[in-house]
Amino acid sequence: MKKLFLILLALSLVGCATRKEIAYYQDIDDKEFSPLPEINSHQKIQVNDILNIKLTSLNPESVAPFSFESGEGRMQMQQIQAMRLTGYIVDAEGYIEYPQIGKIYLKGKTTTEAQDIIKEAVKDEVKNPNIKVTLLNYKFTVQGEVRMPGTYEIIEENITLPQALGMAGDLTINGRRDNVTIIRHDGDERVVKRIDLTQTDWMDTPFYYVKQNDIIYVEPNDPRVKSAGFIGNVGTVISVFSIILSTVVILSR
Question: In Å, how far from its chain's centre is CA 26?
């Protein structure tokens, strides 16, 4: 019985995690961070993006032919859904079709650069034009050991990796903090980056910010993987031992 108790105790301790495996940013007290990259400098327009383009001017009459949305203030999700129906879609060649102007090439441009390009295109038609370009289908996907996996759509263009994971409910206790994978489309290539959240060196890389269509995958830790199998499931093993023990007691009477 004593040996059996020790075996059960050992099994119950299998997979116990340490602080080193769970705590984020463990070297942050010794870290000297680099300046953050310029806002919007990392986010580039891609094929099939839907853009909301808002034009204002000192002369409102000059704006009318361009049929822009006139909504003010913070956009609500219902507004965003409606805007997607009338937004400007970036076609397979990287162009949008703009009223009174025609095709404008925006693929690979940031929203800030797109604003300058459109402003230049309409300057002969509109007095002192002011352009605001917003992505309407900015999304990323979080998979694996998080509380709320799924695809998330936002209107912000500068969301960080911790913020994205926070939207997904953060990592579960079974998620590997030292091996979070980001799959990113960079032009015509796919880039894979592995992030160790227990450290901070990745914060000075382009992967500090989440990009459009990023896939963030949180790998399960060893106890989680083992628990998926029959032998590795501690609860199952304990149940089996309980049945065996009960059987031995009954037969020994």
Answer: 22
